[in-house]
Recover the amino acids of this structure.
């Protein structure tokens, strides 16, 4: 009822704060459910995450991408700690919009797909808190608020890995926590410094408002470069960029299935999103200055992730390393600093969330049945589980970047944009696409093809619930691959604004464009789809 | 007034402003007198009086606060004692520490078979000393306060008579404490030699208006006073007594040492350095910044390798002292209010954390190994949840008061352009997070090796830990009003 009432007054209903409040409230409700009503836990958690999902979809439908002059929409501001100049300020643009929607969709799916083995109440409470934190990162327009949410997601994730994970979970959880916390430690100093320097240079009281600081660009070039590095370090650990990636394989492998889905699907995007919003937008000159470093690290990550993934014996670890390669593409596109590449990066964040999320779900389903993830011990699963093999094929091909599926669109835009800006980096990165086909197809072959041994032959196929969980992801994979236009349209304006902002504040920098405009690229995409 | 013309002139006394000291000291002395006259022991008498005195002081601070806010700070007793907003704020923190120590001590003392009368008498006297420090306007009064506070604590540490560690801790604490008092006194003497007065306001005015051609004596005075005061708040390198004293002392006494004594010590540091020696800020700022950075790094790094939870918390308290000192060195209003905020949050963090250590310590107060916490979450899920909140607060995780406290002091370091210090402190905080994670890991491990099946959680422990956790969460989510209070509570010296 409330929702209906609220929807009629959409201008005033604070939809972005609700994205944080609903999951938080859900976490509290779940945590204090009576112990006797264990059966209710999952249902309640699902209800709250579905409401959040509905809110995010509503955001999507109300988002205006044409004839909209403001950079951020649905802006809401509420003073919080006025003495420090910190406020609850939220806003969304084409860059954050789809990440919010992705978060909204992935959580209910993760809830539906996997049941925790014990302590249901705390499990779902932590998951909902995690969702609130992630939403906060994607919505916040205040530097301190962003940092708070960026940091606070560590706590639920730590507990999810250490209490519901596999094997060496407490090592993996601690490593994850300490790596990311140490990475972002300096960012807080950077945030405070940027706000104080801004206040010094502009006059007036200290503010942590992102738009105000970013638009005024009042900080000297030298200081901005140093501060950018403190931000970049935090994001580089979170993404993770080679060589700061060592926490990722452990955390992904030991996390429970739902934890891996969220970790890969959403949490890694906090870093890449941060690079765009708090790197490029806040420090355009420094981003431009350090771009070669990040382009190189991105390419190294692509090749390194692919090569190491090919060598893995553990299927989940293989998927984890493939994430490093995919995120290398996103970093590459971000620092190509032109519209195509950045749109590609944002799109690829969403794509990676969907495909890798689905891959982790499938690996989790295999593990649930066979209690092993060792590729050696699996084999011939397509005989016993043809449906699962089918799903796995599509998801895997999307991850490889097969035209017609979502992965292709993002990677293609990234490579095209990068090629325009920095030709040789793009050339090397393209090798990554080939390597992705190598390690994923090889893994698929070893797991699903061949004769089935005793236990593998008796494996059950997907249950109805599991099929239902995977279907929406599959639909998105195909939809985004065939018709990405509505998504790209919504991202494009925001990205263009960002690139113009960079052009304005970096002297002598012009957006590297080739003769195609973005519109023609989309035609290209479709042409090549037809070609295959 | 009536006698004024034909009697010895006595200094003016503002009785209401002295009320907290009087209440605490008198209830201590009265308690001692009454119990020695009683034929039969009344078990609730000592804790009751101590608790009542603490609550009275806490409540009386509200009207006093309003009065000071309206009429401005005052000074009296020949300007040797002052009452400003900071005095009242810190007094109420001391009262909170006193209350939680009193609540937690009762079950502890009866469990360990320690006579409780002495404990509460000494605790009340120690608190009185702390309040004196918070209102000192004269170096001699400051020194008196420190001695009243410390001597009582030396005895408190030794109070577990059948435990050799307790005696050892007391001897160490006493010897080093006596030396540090000597340093402080010598420093006071040198400052007096340089400026010719011990009154803080007069010193400040003298230093602000006169230029010393030879300021060597003053500088040595600063240094020696820093040593003496640094010892009380346990900053590196004057921290050596802390781990042993914390480990050996009866755990409720540790609450008092970590919360009450630290608050009083920083009250003294705030009055002396940023206020009195304000015009020489360039001379003491760098040493203070160096000490604060070293404390944070040392406390965090060494805490990681400990296996005893009390020692971990002891080293982490050194790191916290370093963080607070970062706010002091900035020597401006924002930094000072950040110090007060940090002290406020830390009082609750320390009370709650050590309250749980008291419980898990078990009979004999010796079960403080990390292994003792294994499986705590299974046996006492609510207690483990509260401890989780407190540990996350200590680690400075967002949406806890600990984060806002750190934000404040780090901002003050950035404000004074000590970027390196801010960076080092934040990195150390990340290292220190591992300490708290280790305790969390132990609590939530499936392993049930911990000998906690027979732990008894008294009502008092529930009250203290849940109140502390609530405060930690509330100050994390709605810090605004609390920040306002600490801004209003920034100390001001008047008189002279």
């Amino acid at each position: 009822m409330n929702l209906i009432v609220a929807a009629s007054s959409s201008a005033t209903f604070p939809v972005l704060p609700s994205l944080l409040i609903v999951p938080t409230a859900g976490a509290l409700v779940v945590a204090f459910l009576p112990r006797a009503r264990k059966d209710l836990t999952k249902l309640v958690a699902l209800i709250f995450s579905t409401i959040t999902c509905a809110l995010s979809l509503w955001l999507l439908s109300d988002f205006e991408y044409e004839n909209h002059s403001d950079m951020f929409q649905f802006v809401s501001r509420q003073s919080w700690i006025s003495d420090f100049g910190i406020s609850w300020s939220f806003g969304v643009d084409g860059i954050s919009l789809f990440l919010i929607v992705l978060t909204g969709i992935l959580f209910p799916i993760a809830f539906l797909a996997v049941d925790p083995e014990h302590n249901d109440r705390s499990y779902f409470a932590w998951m909902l808190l995690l969702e609130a934190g992630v939403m906060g990162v994607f919505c916040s327009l205040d530097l301190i608020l962003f940092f708070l949410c960026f940091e606070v997601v560590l706590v639920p994730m730590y507990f999810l890995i250490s209490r519901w994970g596999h094997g060496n979970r407490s090592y993996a959880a601690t490593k994850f926590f300490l790596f990311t916390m140490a990475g972002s430690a300096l960012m807080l100093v950077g945030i405070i410094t940027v706000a104080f320097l801004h206040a010094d240079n502009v006059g007036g009281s200290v503010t942590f408002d992102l738009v105000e600081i970013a638009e005024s660009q009042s900080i000297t070039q030298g200081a901005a470069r140093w501060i950018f590095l403190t931000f970049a370090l935090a994001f580089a650990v979170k993404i993770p960029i080679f060589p700061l990636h060592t926490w990722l394989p452990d955390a992904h492998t030991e996390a429970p299935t739902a934890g891996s889905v969220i970790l890969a699907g959403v949490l890694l995007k906090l870093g890449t999103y941060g690079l765009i919003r708090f790197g490029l937008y806040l420090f355009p000159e420094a981003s431009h200055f350090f771009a070669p470093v990040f382009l190189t690290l991105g390419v190294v990550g692509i090749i390194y992730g692919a090569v190491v993934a090919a060598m893995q014996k553990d299927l989940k670890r293989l998927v984890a390393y493939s994430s490093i390669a995919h995120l290398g593409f996103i970093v590459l596109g971000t620092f190509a600093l032109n519209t195509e590449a950045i749109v590609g990066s944002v799109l690829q964040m969403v794509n990676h969330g969907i495909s890798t999320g689905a891959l982790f779900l499938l690996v989790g389903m295999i593990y649930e049945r066979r209690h092993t993830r060792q590729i050696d011990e699996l084999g011939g699963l397509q005989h016993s589980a043809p449906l699962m093999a089918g799903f796995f094929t599509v998801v895997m091909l999307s991850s490889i970047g097969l035209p017609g599926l979502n992965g292709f669109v993002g990677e293609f835009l990234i490579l095209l944009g990068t090629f325009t800006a920095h030709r040789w980096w793009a050339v090397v990165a393209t090798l990554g696409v080939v390597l992705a086909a190598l390690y994923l197809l090889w893994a698929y072959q070893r797991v699903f093809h061949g004769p089935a041994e005793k236990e593998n032959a008796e494996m059950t196929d997907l249950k109805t619930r599991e099929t239902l969980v995977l279907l929406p992801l599959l639909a998105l994979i195909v939809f985004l691959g065939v018709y990405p236009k509505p998504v790209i349209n919504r991202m494009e304006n925001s990205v263009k604004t960002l690139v113009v902002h960079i052009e304005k504040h970096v002297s002598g920098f012009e957006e590297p464009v080739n003769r195609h405009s973005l519109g023609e690229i989309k035609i290209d995409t479709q042409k090549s789809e037809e070609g295959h | 007034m009536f006698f004024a013309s034909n009697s010895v002139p006595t200094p003016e006394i503002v009785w209401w402003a002295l009320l907290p000291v009087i209440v605490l000291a008198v209830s201590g002395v009265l308690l001692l007198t009454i119990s020695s006259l009683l034929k039969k022991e009344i078990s609730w008498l000592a804790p009751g009086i101590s608790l009542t005195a603490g609550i009275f002081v806490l409540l009386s601070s509200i009207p006093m606060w309003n009065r000071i806010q309206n009429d401005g700070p005052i000074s009296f007793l020949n300007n040797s004692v002052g009452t400003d907003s900071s005095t009242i704020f810190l007094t109420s923190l001391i009262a909170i520490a006193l209350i939680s120590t009193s609540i937690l001590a009762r079950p502890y003392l009866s469990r360990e078979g320690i006579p409780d009368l002495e404990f509460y008498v000494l605790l009340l006297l120690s608190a009185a000393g702390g309040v004196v420090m918070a209102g000192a306007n004269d170096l001699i009064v400051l020194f008196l306060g420190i001695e009243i506070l410390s001597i009582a604590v030396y005895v408190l540490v030794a109070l577990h008579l059948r435990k050799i560690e307790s005696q050892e801790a007391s001897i160490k604490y006493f010897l080093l404490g006596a030396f540090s008092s000597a340093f402080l006194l010598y420093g006071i003497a040198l400052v007096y030699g340089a400026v010719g007065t011990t009154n803080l306001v007069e010193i400040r005015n003298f230093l602000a208006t006169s230029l010393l051609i030879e300021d060597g004596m003053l500088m040595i005075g600063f240094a020696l006073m820093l040593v003496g005061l640094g010892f009380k708040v346990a900053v590196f390198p004057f921290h050596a007594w802390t781990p042993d004293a914390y480990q050996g002392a009866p755990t409720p006494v540790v609450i008092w040492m970590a919360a009450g004594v630290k608050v009083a010590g920083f009250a003294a540091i705030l009055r002396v350095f940023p206020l009195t020696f304000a015009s020489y800020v360039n001379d003491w700022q760098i040493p203070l910044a160096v000490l604060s950075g070293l404390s944070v790094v040392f406390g965090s790094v060494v805490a990681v390798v400990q296996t005893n939870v009390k020692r971990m918390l002891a080293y982490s308290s050194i790191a916290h002292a370093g963080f607070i000192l970062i706010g002091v060195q900035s020597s401006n209003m924002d930094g000072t209010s950040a110090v007060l905020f940090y002290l406020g949050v830390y009082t609750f963090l320390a009370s709650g954390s050590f309250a749980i250590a008291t419980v898990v310590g078990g009979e004999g107060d010796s079960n403080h190994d990390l292994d003792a916490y294994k499986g705590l979450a299974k046996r006492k899920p609510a207690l483990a949840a509260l401890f989780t909140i407190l540990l996350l607060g200590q680690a400075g995780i967002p949406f806890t008061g600990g984060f806002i406290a750190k934000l404040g002091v780090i901002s003050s370091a950035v404000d004074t352009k000590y970027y390196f210090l801010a960076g080092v402190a934040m990195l150390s905080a990340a290292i220190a997070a591992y300490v708290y994670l280790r305790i969390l890991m132990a609590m939530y491990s499936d392993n049930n090796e911990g000998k906690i099946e027979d732990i008894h959680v008294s009502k008092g422990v529930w009250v203290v830990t849940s109140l502390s956790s609530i405060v930690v969460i509330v100050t994390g989510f709605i810090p605004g009003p609390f920040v306002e209070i600490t801004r209003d509570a920034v100390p001001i010296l008047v008189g002279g």
Summary: The radius of gyration of chain B is 22 Å. Residues 164-195 of chain B form the longest helix (32 residues).
